[in-house]
Structures are given as structure tokens and as C-alpha cells.
Batch of 2 targets.
Target 1
Amino acid sequence: MSKSALCIGINDYPGTDSDLAGCVNDASDWSALLAQRGYGVRQMFDSEATKATMVQAIGDLIGAARNGDSVVITYSGHGTWAPDTSGDEPDGRDEGLCPYDIGDGNVLLDDELTEIFRLREAGVRVLLIADSCHSGSVTRGDDADLDPGMPRARFLPPSVWADDTQLAPASLSRNGGFGSFSRLGGDLLMAGCRDTEFSWDTRFGGRPNGAFTYYALKTLQQLGPDASYQDWFRAIGNHLPTTRLPQTPQILGSRSARHFPIFE
């Protein structure tokens, strides 16, 4: 059995005035953890992560995997939405990831990722971890780890990268989400928040990180070796949402996939 991972972190968004701070650290942290778990890891940071290179790298990873192999893709950066042109979205919007060159209009839509994921061979396990996007509000959890003066939302409004003609079919009143990512064809999606919420870019002990990534890694260290993804998700829920980090992590996938051992 082969285990492979791609960890993407984008802080720098030229032409948008919407740079982030914690995404490269997120990707580095996921990379270190996955390497410890026996994964061969490729990293893509900032200018390395254009739409073309992301599509190529994800396609190569999925295409090389065989029955029994495990694939993990982590993405930390901005999320966004674009008007749905295929009619498969009830809310009229396709969700998307924001590559480094999003300022040139190069959004990576969920429909495009779906086509890549459909190429996977039977028996390949795929996990997507997305620390990006959304908006919303709820109060509970523990803020003790969070530095003062933070955080910043990981959502890039379509008006930043698309012109009026591209946006005309959909309303600008709502923020982007990743609910449709549950249809990508992977076994599991672990996301930083609900479709109606933001994921937050913040700082812990002076070091920038995504809130979801920080607490996901923190809680994983406290779980036993036989813990499942469902166990992990419940542990993360003890920390998020909070008053200052109003994001509700999500896990999407089949019952059996939720009970897979973590990163096995």
C-alpha cells in the first residue's frame, strides 16, 4: 500500500490586496505530520500553486494511486464562489479554491475537481482537508490559545477577481462554501467550517496558522493510535467554534469512511 499527499498553502495573492499569513505554515505542519505517518509528501507554496500546477499535481497524485493506496490533499488559502453554469448547484453558485493566480481570474472550481477525482482507481482512499472560505456566527468553545488582535477570514469575494459580466448570474449577497465538495468522489472531506461560515486565518503564540488546522493538529496529538476520523472530528469540536472563531468544522463522507483509522 502506498501513501501519498499534496499539501498546498497560499499566503500571497498578487493583485487582490487580500494576502493571508498562516497558510504556508498550515501546509508545512500538515506535511510534517503526514511524513511522520509514512506519506510521501509534495508541498506547493504561494507562486508554485497556480491553477495549472494545482490541477496537474492533484491529477498526478490521483492518477498514480492504485487499489489499497491512500491519498491526502490539504489546502490552506482563500475560498470563493462563481456563478453556476451547469445547473448542478441549488444555490446557483459553484464553490472554488483560489490559486496563486486568482487575480487573473483562474479559480479552481468544484466541478473541475470533481472531474479529476472521478479518475481515481477503485479501492483508492482519498481525504481532502480544506482550511478555507465561508461565513457565520456561534458562541462556545475555548479561545485560550488565540493571540489578541486576530483573526482574518479566508474568503475572497468574487468581486475581487471576476468582472461584472462573470458575476451576473448569481447574487453577491452570500459568501462561498464547500458543501458541493462532498460530491467530489473522495471518501472524506474535512472542512474548516459550514457553507455559511468563514474559516479564520489567525495566530497562536505569535505564529500564524489557520484555526482549523491548529486545532486539528493539536487534538490529533491527544488521540490514541486506533482513533477514527469521527473521533478526531469530535475532538476538534471541543475547540471550535468559539466567540472569536465562529466556525463549525465539518466532516462529510460515508459512515464507513468516518470510522477509518486516521491516515492509514
Target 2
Amino acid sequence: MPEERRMPFASLLDLIESRGGGGVDGRRGVFYMQKQCSSLTEELPELIGDVDTEIPWMSKALGKHPDAVNFWLGEEAAVTSLHKDHYENLYCVISGEKHFILLPPSDRPFIPYELYPPATFKQREDGSFDVVDEEAAEKVPWIPVDPLNPDLERYPDYGLARPLHCTVRAGEMLYLPSLWFHHVRQSQGCIAVNYWYDMEFDVKYNYFQLLESLSAVLGKN
């Protein structure tokens, strides 16, 4: 988990604008507004007049309203590791670009999982960061492979996966179906809003659970 901080929105904008020209500095951390609690509607109501709280045609197609509407703003160095969500996701870029690597649920047998202790980043007084494990917590499954530079010697089955690369630019939307694996990068100061609709736990989910079970039997966790 990231270290969380509270600050005025203007201060975050100043930080991102001032750091737009440099590379990644491991000591300074990476700033990314990405709280996934329907942050647009719950924490930024001032923006609701400028950003729709739902996309009518998407809500009509799914027969429901979004469960969460999230606001995203951050640095180019903010990278989201490969994962999946139990939501139908409509991702809308307002400014800048998002770069997605996408893998369908059918590639699950080729995607490795390992168990890791839950942990949180904590910043020291000198500006560097420690990763602090949660005491007595059960380990959680996570995907260790980096799609940008996969270690096929360690994870040879990933070489059988067929990732799709997609760039979403300002004014464009991406429909990301539930259970699709995705890895996300962005341009500096990219602004986006996404709409999460809870998935239907129907036959599609049953098929995915079958893939999970077969992967476990074959030792592809």
C-alpha cells in the first residue's frame, strides 16, 4: 500500500507541475491521486459540474448505475502493476495519455501469482522509503511479472500470453471488461476519471474460476 497524505488540491498541482521535467528519484517518492472510494463524488464534489457522474449509454447497457466514480491525477513515474478488477470499467482520459497493457481472462494459465506479506511504504526523515510489513497478517496473492520487461527465464509460461497494447488519449474512453488483466502507465500530469460498475457473477465468472482452479492444479499459481 502507498503512504497516504492529505494536502490541498492546489499543492498537489504545484508539485506535479514542478516535477514534470525530471526522471524518477527513488528518494522523493511518486505523487498520485488515486483513492478508489468514488473519490470524484465523495471528495471532489466541486468538479461534478464539469464531469458527469455517470455515462448514460454505459449505465443503460449494463442496466445499473456506477458503484464508484474515481478521479486520477499523477506523475509519469506512477505505474500500476499487472492486476484485474471485479468491475466493468469505463476509463475516460481528460488530459494527457494512459498506456494500457491488456490480457484477457483466458490468459490466466500463463500469468503467475506469488504470495507476499501485506506492506505499506513509510518515508524516513531523510526522504527515503521503507517497506513496512503488516505484523501477523496473512500473505496475499499478487502478480510478480513485469509486462514491460518480463523475466521469461523465471516465468516461462508468460511467454505464451498475448498482451494487447493500447494508448488512450485526451477525449477518449476505454471499456475495460471485468476480469481483464491490465498494467497502466501515464504521461506526466495525466487527468482521468473512471466509472466502475460491479460485475455480474454469472457463467463468465464460473468459467474464470475454472481457469483459476486448473491453474492451481497445474502449479501455475
